[in-house]
Each structure stands twice: as C-alpha cells, then as structure tokens.
Design a protein that fits this description.
It is a single chain. By secondary structure, this protein is an alpha/beta fold. Strands 1, 2, 3, 4, 5, 6, 7, 8 and 9 form a 9-stranded mixed beta sheet that branches. The longest helix has 19 residues, at 207-225. It has a single domain (7-245), classed as Spore Coat Polysaccharide Biosynthesis Protein SpsA, Chain A (Alpha-Beta Complex), CATH 3.90.550.10. The two termini are 23 Å apart. A hairpin with a 5-residue loop joins strand 6 and strand 7. The protein is built from 6 helices and 9 strands. Helix 5 runs antiparallel to helix 6. Helices cover 30% and strands 21% of the residues.
Length: 259
C-alpha cells in the first residue's frame, strides 16, 4: 500500500462557507491510502474557518491569513505540499466519487508525471449534473493542445510535484492555463485516466471578470503559440460560442461513464 505515490490535495478558499464543507467531505472521504490534505484560507470572515476547524483532525495542514489572490494562495499550498503529486480541489469542487483516486493507474504508469481525467459540470443552484465539459479530452494530451484553450481542468489533473512550478501571480484569473502548459512541457509521460476525476460548479462569473480572464488567456496563448495562431483560435472560440447560443452545439457533453 505504501508503494502508491503520496498525493497532496490542496484546497484554496476565501469566504466560501456555502461550499467548503462539501469539498472537505469529498476529500477526506477518499479511500486512497496515501494522501495529505492542505487548506489555504484567505482570512475568511463568514464562518469558513469554523467549518475547517470542525474537520481539522482530518486535515494535515491549514492556515487562515491574508493573501494576494487565488494564485498566491495556491503557491502557498505548493510550498507546504510534501506529496509526490499535487492536485488542487478548491472550494466548491469535489471528487466525482469516493474511489476516484484509487482509480488512477499509478502502478501501470510508474514514470508518468501527469494524470488527467474528465470533469463533470454541476449546476450551482440545483446540484444537478449538467454533463461533461464541452471540450473532449485527447488521449495523448500535450501542451500544444492548449491552443484550443483550457483543455483539461486543473482540478482533474494530478501533476508530479517536482515539475509543478509556482503559479505566475502576474495573472489574476487565468494563471492555471500557463501553469498546466509549463508542466506539460516538462512531463515525461502524460496519462489519460479514462475516468471522471472532479465535479465542478457551473457558477456565474461577472462580465468584468470574464473580460479580464479572456484578455489574460489571449496573452498567455500568444506567449506560447504566437499571435497568428492565437487570433485563429479566438475566432474559433467566437464561432463556437455563437453556435452554442443558437442551439446548434450543446453546451455540455453527455456523461457516458459508468461508475
């Protein structure tokens, strides 16, 4: 049992009292035998800390202090992590089922540096499962796939700690794309788990945040893929969004996985 790699699961939260307990219960309920759990709270004032304290016997490390934003908090988690792999399961996210981590094929792929899986989208208000993310995952994921945007969600990706650099805190909303691309460039072997790893809340994002996020994504993609390819990609994104609004393309994919 101890031959299985140690996984550091990191949750970042700020004033997330309505979501944090379900995330914590999802993590500590995993039946995988070798993981640690870390929670980085940004000095919440809404009762989040009380819920963290309720479960602190099952939490390896937690802290509640001001930070410089979500990616600064995620970097704090990385610095404290002692596992072979890291996985971010932030407030509102959850594992798909209690044996999610036990399904990761570590023994079949001992040299893999990244494992990635599917993500199910959950309606924030009703808790209803809406389907899989629209982007179908390639079975041979590499960094070049990210010219199509955020292909694999970070909450459904396990990255070996020694190739997981820090998040670039110059980005406030889209640093996860940059982080994943850098990790994929270093990965010796990247493995599709053929499973659903995470549940992701389909919450609302303000128009201002959305615009700023798109600007950051554009700049990140331009850095890696050049301006012409980035423009072509964003024209594709725009056409796809029009097709979805017109009902010509589904917003989510059907969940065909059997648990």
């Amino acid at each position: 049992m101890n031959s299985l790699p140690k996984i550091s699961i990191i949750t970042v939260v700020f004033n997330g009292v309505q979501f944090i307990e379900s995330t914590i219960r999802s993590v500590i309920g995993q039946n995988y035998p070798n993981f640690e759990y870390l929670i980085i709270d940004g000095k919440s004032t809404d009762g989040t800390v009380d819920l963290i304290k309720k479960y602190e016997d099952n939490i390896g490390f937690w802290v509640s202090e001001p930070d410089q934003g979500i990616y600064d908090a995620m970097n704090k988690g990385l610095k404290k992590a002692t596992g072979d792999f890291v996985l971010f399961m932030n407030a509102g996210d959850a594992f798909y089922e209690k044996n999610t981590l036990s399904k990761i094929p570590f023994e079949q792929h001992p040299n893999a540096d990244i494992f990635y899986g599917e993500t199910v989208i959950i309606d924030e208000n009703t808790g209803e499962e809406l389907g899989l993310r629209r982007k179908k995952l390639p079975i041979d994921l590499d960094w070049k796939h990210y010219k199509k945007g955020m292909v694999a969600c970070h909450q459904s990706s396990l990255v070996r700690k020694n190739i997981a650099g820090e998040y670039n805190t110059e980005y406030k909303l889209s640093a996860d794309i940059d982080w994943v691309i850098r990790a994929l460039k270093k990965s010796r072997e990247t493995v599709f788990t053929q499973t659903i790893v995470a549940r992701f809340l389909n919450g609302g994002v303000s128009r201002k945040q959305q615009k700023n996020s798109l600007k950051e994504r554009f700049n990140i993609m331009r850095k890696y893929f050049g301006l012409p390819q980035t423009i072509i990609s964003h024209i594709g994104f725009f056409i796809e969004s029009l097709a979805i609004k017109a009902g010509l393309k589904p917003l989510f994919r059907k969940n065909t996985f059997v648990t």
